[in-house]
Amino acid sequence: MRHIAIISSSVRAERKSHNVALYFQLYLQENQLATTEIVDLKAYNFPIFNGTLKTLINPAENVLEYAAKINSADGIIIVMPEYNGGYPASLKNAIDLLYEEWEHKPIAIVTVSSEPFGGSQALVALQFTLWKMKAWTIPAMFSVPTVDKAYDKQGNAMDKSNSDKLAAVFVKELLWCIEADKAPQHLLA
Fold this sequence. Notes:
The chain has 189 residues and is α/β, with parallel strands linked by helices. The protein has one domain (3-188): Flavodoxin domain (Rossmann fold, 3-Layer(aba) Sandwich), CATH 3.40.50.360. The chain is 42% helix and 19% strand. It has helices at residues 17-30, 41-44, 61-72, 89-97, 120-132, 160-182, 185-188, and strands at 3-8, 35-40, 75-81, 106-112, 136-144. It has a 5-stranded parallel β-sheet, with helices on both faces. The longest helix has 23 residues, at 160-182. It starts with a strand and ends with a helix.
Protein backbone atom coordinates (compact mmCIF):
# COMPACT_ATOMS: atom_id res chain seq x y z
CA MET A 1 0.00 0.00 0.00
CA ARG A 2 1.27 3.45 -0.88
CA HIS A 3 1.97 6.13 1.71
CA ILE A 4 0.62 9.66 1.28
CA ALA A 5 1.71 12.63 3.36
CA ILE A 6 -0.96 15.31 3.71
CA ILE A 7 0.53 18.76 4.25
CA SER A 8 -1.70 21.03 6.30
CA SER A 9 -0.15 24.35 5.36
CA SER A 10 -1.99 26.97 7.40
CA VAL A 11 -0.48 28.01 10.72
CA ARG A 12 -3.30 30.38 11.72
CA ALA A 13 -5.14 29.89 15.00
CA GLU A 14 -8.63 29.59 13.48
CA ARG A 15 -7.62 27.75 10.32
CA LYS A 16 -10.32 25.86 8.44
CA SER A 17 -8.10 24.20 5.84
CA HIS A 18 -6.85 21.76 8.48
CA ASN A 19 -10.37 20.30 8.58
CA VAL A 20 -9.97 19.41 4.89
CA ALA A 21 -6.60 17.76 5.58
CA LEU A 22 -8.37 15.64 8.23
CA TYR A 23 -11.09 14.81 5.70
CA PHE A 24 -8.53 13.45 3.23
CA GLN A 25 -6.87 11.40 5.93
CA LEU A 26 -10.26 9.89 6.85
CA TYR A 27 -11.19 9.35 3.19
CA LEU A 28 -7.95 7.53 2.34
CA GLN A 29 -8.13 5.37 5.47
CA GLU A 30 -11.86 4.54 5.19
CA ASN A 31 -11.39 3.45 1.58
CA GLN A 32 -8.10 1.67 2.33
CA LEU A 33 -6.38 3.50 -0.52
CA ALA A 34 -3.15 4.43 1.25
CA THR A 35 -1.52 4.84 4.60
CA THR A 36 -1.41 8.49 5.61
CA GLU A 37 0.02 11.01 7.97
CA ILE A 38 -0.68 14.68 8.35
CA VAL A 39 2.38 16.89 8.14
CA ASP A 40 1.09 19.91 10.05
CA LEU A 41 3.23 22.96 9.37
CA LYS A 42 1.76 24.61 12.47
CA ALA A 43 3.42 21.92 14.61
CA TYR A 44 6.83 22.48 13.00
CA ASN A 45 7.05 26.23 13.59
CA PHE A 46 9.93 26.57 11.12
CA PRO A 47 12.05 29.72 11.25
CA ILE A 48 11.93 32.02 8.25
CA PHE A 49 13.78 30.42 5.35
CA ASN A 50 17.52 31.06 5.44
CA GLY A 51 18.81 28.16 3.37
CA THR A 52 17.93 24.75 2.01
CA LEU A 53 18.42 21.66 4.14
CA LYS A 54 21.56 20.88 2.13
CA THR A 55 23.15 24.20 3.10
CA LEU A 56 22.23 24.21 6.79
CA ILE A 57 25.21 23.46 9.03
CA ASN A 58 23.26 22.11 12.01
CA PRO A 59 19.67 21.58 10.88
CA ALA A 60 17.13 21.36 13.68
CA GLU A 61 15.67 17.94 14.46
CA ASN A 62 12.22 19.03 13.26
CA VAL A 63 13.71 20.03 9.87
CA LEU A 64 15.28 16.58 9.48
CA GLU A 65 12.02 14.92 10.54
CA TYR A 66 10.04 16.98 8.04
CA ALA A 67 12.49 16.19 5.22
CA ALA A 68 12.29 12.48 6.04
CA LYS A 69 8.48 12.54 5.93
CA ILE A 70 8.41 14.26 2.55
CA ASN A 71 11.15 12.03 1.17
CA SER A 72 9.53 8.78 2.32
CA ALA A 73 6.03 9.61 1.06
CA ASP A 74 5.02 8.05 -2.25
CA GLY A 75 2.82 11.07 -2.90
CA ILE A 76 1.76 14.30 -1.26
CA ILE A 77 -1.55 16.09 -0.86
CA ILE A 78 -1.07 19.77 -0.09
CA VAL A 79 -4.07 21.44 1.52
CA MET A 80 -3.62 25.14 0.93
CA PRO A 81 -5.78 28.09 1.90
CA GLU A 82 -5.78 31.16 -0.26
CA TYR A 83 -4.63 34.35 1.45
CA ASN A 84 -5.14 37.54 -0.54
CA GLY A 85 -4.90 35.70 -3.85
CA GLY A 86 -1.77 33.76 -2.88
CA TYR A 87 -0.71 30.80 -0.82
CA PRO A 88 0.58 31.01 2.77
CA ALA A 89 4.14 32.02 3.54
CA SER A 90 4.38 28.99 5.83
CA LEU A 91 3.98 26.73 2.78
CA LYS A 92 6.49 28.65 0.66
CA ASN A 93 8.95 28.45 3.54
CA ALA A 94 8.42 24.67 3.90
CA ILE A 95 8.78 24.07 0.16
CA ASP A 96 11.96 26.14 -0.16
CA LEU A 97 13.55 24.32 2.78
CA LEU A 98 13.87 21.18 0.66
CA TYR A 99 14.91 20.51 -2.93
CA GLU A 100 15.81 16.94 -3.90
CA GLU A 101 12.92 15.67 -1.79
CA TRP A 102 10.44 17.31 -4.19
CA GLU A 103 11.99 16.04 -7.42
CA HIS A 104 9.45 13.95 -9.38
CA LYS A 105 7.27 13.63 -6.27
CA PRO A 106 3.59 13.26 -7.26
CA ILE A 107 1.72 16.12 -5.59
CA ALA A 108 -2.01 16.80 -5.50
CA ILE A 109 -3.19 20.29 -4.54
CA VAL A 110 -6.31 21.07 -2.56
CA THR A 111 -7.28 24.75 -2.55
CA VAL A 112 -9.45 26.18 0.19
CA SER A 113 -11.11 29.54 0.70
CA SER A 114 -13.82 31.17 2.74
CA GLU A 115 -14.92 32.78 -0.53
CA PRO A 116 -16.83 31.20 -3.45
CA PHE A 117 -13.72 30.77 -5.67
CA GLY A 118 -12.33 28.00 -3.46
CA GLY A 119 -8.72 29.17 -3.46
CA SER A 120 -8.25 28.73 -7.19
CA GLN A 121 -6.50 32.10 -7.55
CA ALA A 122 -3.47 30.81 -5.61
CA LEU A 123 -3.23 27.51 -7.48
CA VAL A 124 -1.10 28.70 -10.40
CA ALA A 125 1.45 30.38 -8.13
CA LEU A 126 1.87 27.19 -6.07
CA GLN A 127 2.09 25.01 -9.18
CA PHE A 128 4.80 27.24 -10.61
CA THR A 129 6.84 27.01 -7.39
CA LEU A 130 6.51 23.22 -7.35
CA TRP A 131 7.42 22.95 -11.04
CA LYS A 132 10.60 24.91 -10.31
CA MET A 133 11.36 22.31 -7.60
CA LYS A 134 10.85 19.59 -10.27
CA ALA A 135 7.80 18.19 -8.49
CA TRP A 136 5.07 16.42 -10.45
CA THR A 137 1.77 18.20 -9.82
CA ILE A 138 -1.23 16.16 -10.88
CA PRO A 139 -3.71 17.74 -13.30
CA ALA A 140 -6.79 17.05 -11.11
CA MET A 141 -7.67 19.60 -8.47
CA PHE A 142 -9.91 19.67 -5.42
CA SER A 143 -11.33 23.10 -4.65
CA VAL A 144 -13.25 23.94 -1.49
CA PRO A 145 -15.25 27.20 -1.53
CA THR A 146 -16.83 28.49 1.70
CA VAL A 147 -14.75 25.98 3.66
CA ASP A 148 -16.22 27.02 7.01
CA LYS A 149 -19.55 25.52 5.90
CA ALA A 150 -18.10 22.41 4.20
CA TYR A 151 -16.11 20.45 6.85
CA ASP A 152 -16.21 20.21 10.63
CA LYS A 153 -13.22 20.20 13.01
CA GLN A 154 -12.96 16.41 12.88
CA GLY A 155 -12.73 16.41 9.07
CA ASN A 156 -16.29 15.28 8.42
CA ALA A 157 -17.78 16.62 5.21
CA MET A 158 -21.16 18.32 5.54
CA ASP A 159 -22.04 16.86 2.12
CA LYS A 160 -20.18 13.56 2.39
CA SER A 161 -21.65 12.03 -0.75
CA ASN A 162 -20.54 14.90 -3.00
CA SER A 163 -17.16 15.34 -1.27
CA ASP A 164 -16.42 11.63 -1.57
CA LYS A 165 -17.41 11.64 -5.26
CA LEU A 166 -15.04 14.54 -5.97
CA ALA A 167 -12.29 13.05 -3.77
CA ALA A 168 -12.53 9.72 -5.63
CA VAL A 169 -11.59 11.37 -8.95
CA PHE A 170 -8.89 13.49 -7.33
CA VAL A 171 -7.28 10.64 -5.37
CA LYS A 172 -7.52 8.24 -8.32
CA GLU A 173 -5.39 10.68 -10.35
CA LEU A 174 -2.82 10.98 -7.56
CA LEU A 175 -2.62 7.19 -7.13
CA TRP A 176 -2.20 6.75 -10.90
CA CYS A 177 0.70 9.23 -10.86
CA ILE A 178 2.25 7.46 -7.87
CA GLU A 179 2.10 4.13 -9.71
CA ALA A 180 3.51 5.69 -12.88
CA ASP A 181 6.33 7.23 -10.84
CA LYS A 182 7.15 3.81 -9.36
CA ALA A 183 7.15 2.07 -12.77
CA PRO A 184 10.48 0.48 -13.79
CA GLN A 185 12.56 3.00 -15.72
CA HIS A 186 12.98 0.71 -18.75
CA LEU A 187 9.22 0.96 -19.34
CA LEU A 188 9.52 4.73 -19.60
CA ALA A 189 12.29 4.71 -22.22
